[in-house]
Amino acid sequence: MHIWIRTEVRDFEKRVGIVPRDVKTLVSEGFKVTIEESNNRAIAIKHYREAGAEIAASNTWQKAPNDTIIFGLKELPEDVKTLRHRHIMFGHAFKGQLGSKLLLDRFQKGGGSLYDLEYLLNKNGTRIAAFGYWAGFAGAAVAIKVWLHQQINDFPGPNKIKVYPGRNELVEELRLAFLNKMVLKKSKPKVIIIGALGRVGSGATELAKNLELEITSWDIPETKNGGPFPQILEHDIFINCILARPGVPIFVQKSDIRNSQKLSVISDVSCDPDSPYNPIPIYKHATSFSDPVIRTSHGETYLDVTAIDNLPSMLPVESSEDFSNQLLPTLLELKKIDKGPWNKAKEIYLQHI
Question: Which of 14, 85, 87, 92 is catalytic?
Fold first, then answer.
């Protein structure tokens, strides 16, 4: 069984789904592991070499033998028109997302298969491995950065979001930012987190607690009867940790933006602007590390939205180590790829094909 860890092509994507420690375990269990060189990856290639992986040039996975399993996290290069390998990745292709049909067509033409990490599930239907905690942690941090920027500037910002070596550095930077003279004149922001009991919500809650912010925690009981939810507008920051899916109510809509609102920042961690079930239908596209904020306004009132769909890349080492640790036991089952969760993931792919 040969696993080929490919280079990520997206800007600011510094994560990797399998870390050196777990490569060493795979190799000891008889797997062959190849990893491509990358100038962007947060973990140095030398650690993979020491763990027993073979090293390949960047973006050479297309030349791998047909029975190789190609492993990555985010999107594939667009210039590869047909996909003949088995790919493990987050495909974002099964809920009608932008570009999903094109991706499935590329697999169908090449005869390959997609094992979508989002649909790699335990027997109880929960995801085996997820970046959710770190998405929530980073999503809350970005929301606070946007709020802090609002306190001392008239224009939306910050201009970009940087990558951090660890959570401690990020939290310390935010603590120092609250000591700015102009920020000290204001009350600390009130935060509402919807989906607070899930993985994403727990990460967002942890970040807010680290900064000693006042938190309102909502989950299914508070939202099950549907909106509108005027209570959201009474907070400074709203962090959405609920996936867009049938039955999810609208949390904030354009008509809610008015001169009397307190709400000035939304961090949509789930980030599904293309979905017909988007609970925050006030923006049309995701934001990014290099362009993190969309400003919507009504009269003199503005509301800044941030919706970055690869938030865990803000803390790439910690999020990669956590994800790889969750995934390893199931990776070891790849020798029985036609059984268990891998087989069910392929069945979901075949249904959509």
Answer: 92
Q: What is the largest CA-CA distance in the chain?
A: 64
The predicted-structure confidence for 57-70, as pLDDT tens digits, reads as follows: 999 999 999 999 99
Name the active-site residue from 2, 24, 32, 74.
Answer: 74
Q: Does 74 participate in catalysis according to the annotation?
A: yes
Candidates 71, 67, 204; CA nearest to 132 is: 204
The 10s digit of each residue's pLDDT in 273-297 is 888 889 999 999 999 999 999 999 8
Mean pLDDT (the chain) is 94
The full DSSP string for 161-194 is ----S-HHHHHHHHHHHTTSHHHHTSPPPEEEEE
Q: Give me the domains of the chain, ranges plus CATH numbers.
A: 2-119+316-352 (3.40.50.720), 132-313 (3.40.50.720)
Write b or e for each residue in 283-295: b if 16 or more Cβ atoms lie within 10 A of its Cβ, otherwise e: beebbbbeebbbe
Query: In the numeric block, which tokens belong to residue 55?
Result: 């090293």
Residues 6+ apart with CB under 8 A from 233: 252, 256, 261, 262, 263
pLDDT number for residue 245: 84
What letter does residue 128 receive in the DSSP assignment? S
H helix intervals, the chain? 20-28, 45-51, 100-110, 132-152, 167-177, 181-184, 199-210, 220-223, 316-331, 340-352
Q: Of 74-83, 97-106, 292-301, 320-329, which has the strongest mean pLDDT?
A: 320-329
Per-residue pLDDT of 98-134, as tens digits, reads 788 999 999 999 999 999 999 999 999 999 999 999 9
Nearest to 71 by CA among 271, 288, 342, 348: 342
- The closest alpha carbon to 183, from 221, 151, 141, belongs to 151
pTM over 0.90: yes
- Tokens standing for residue 232: 């959201």
